[in-house]
């Protein structure tokens, strides 16, 4: 059975590399990505209760402890929002997914064709706090 991790790794390998999407916050290494939900197979989407739609995207965040050997995934508290170009704000509701030693935080986002968002996500883990921000435009395929 395919896992979310393998699906995300395949997705990332297929995308052109523009820049590594990670931010260091203290001893934390925060990896993030967003992509159309249709990039997931129906099986993977069903397993993780993600709605596949031409008008839906997935925001994925993983928090690693860079101070430990092997940089293990650690639980964290995430909150965030996505603001489009006209200033409409959509709150992101993250849910935790655990798969063996891996921990992911996933939020779904509805969008229109060619809608651009500025993301702001607060990350907190054992007293370490920070924010990641990035921009992305989504297209309806």
Compose a concise summary of this entry.
With about 140 residues, the chain is mostly beta strands. It is about 10% helix and about 50% strand.
What topology does this entry show?
Blueprint: H1 4-14, E1 22-25, E2 28-36, H2 42-47, E3 56-65, E4 77-84, E5 89-92, E6 95-99, E7 102-110, E8 115-125, E9 128-138
What does this structure look like?
With 141 residues, the chain is mainly beta. It contains 2 helices and 9 strands. The chain has helices spanning 4-14, 42-47; strands at residues 22-25, 28-36, 56-65, 77-84, 89-92, 95-99, 102-110, 115-125, 128-138. The chain has a 5-stranded antiparallel beta sheet with strand order 1-2-3-7-6, with no helix packed on it. A 4-stranded antiparallel beta sheet has the order 5-4-8-9, with no helix packed on it. A hairpin with a 2-residue loop joins strand 6 and strand 7 (102-110). The model is unreliable at 8-18 (pLDDT under 50).
- Count of individual helical segments: 2
Q: Cα distance, first to last residue?
A: 27 Å
Major beta sheet summary? 5 strands, antiparallel
Share of residues in helices: 10-25%
Report the average pLDDT across residues.
89
Weakly predicted, low-confidence segments: 8-18
Strand proportion? over 45%
Please provide the ordered H/E string of secondary-structure elements. Answer: HEEHEEEEEEE
Total strands: the figure is 9
